[in-house]
Amino acid sequence: MLMEALAQCYQASNTWEKRRQILSIMADKVRFSKLLRYIPCLTNYRFTDAKRHCLTYGRGGPVKSLRASRRDIASSQIKHFIAFITSSHIVQDLPFGERSITLSNKETIKIPT
Q1: Whole-model pTM above 0.70?
Q2: Which domain of life is it from (predicted)?
Q3: Which residues contact 53 (CB under 8 A, 6 or more apart)?
Q4: Contact between residue 75 and residue 90 where contact means Cβ atoms under 8 Å apart
Q5: Which residues neighbour 9 within 8 Å (Cβ) at sequence distance 6 or greater?
């Protein structure tokens, strides 16, 4: 009776996280072969993962997820930032040396290298 109720809860849940929580309630007490009678689509991987969940977070315990937040930056702000860091106020040419190039008209030009 209890196994049937847990199997119905397992089938009714729509995410793997919830299913893992429900499965962890019974995974360490019942063998995989017996659970297959109630949940035919159960895989060995999911059964083992539910056992690991039971050991890590407790029987039916929720997993604490870290929420990653993102900030939306306007493209005008990005363009302004790129213009600023590539401006002559920030980027300075520091030549290592000079090289002389002689053109076909015998004119010599000095180029920083």
Answers
A1: no
A2: Eukaryota
A3: 20, 21, 23, 24, 27, 61, 63
A4: no
A5: 22
Closest CA to 59 of 33, 31, 20: 20
CA 16 to chain centre: 17
DSSP class per residue in 70-93: -----HHHHHHHHHHHTSTTT---
List average pLDDT for each run of 10 residues in the chain, which is 113 residues long. Answer: 89 92 91 92 94 91 80 89 82 71 89 75
> Between the CA atoms of 17, 20, 22 and 25, what dihedral angle is there, to the nearest 10 degrees?
-140
C-alpha dihedral over 29, 33, 34, 40, to 10 degrees?
120
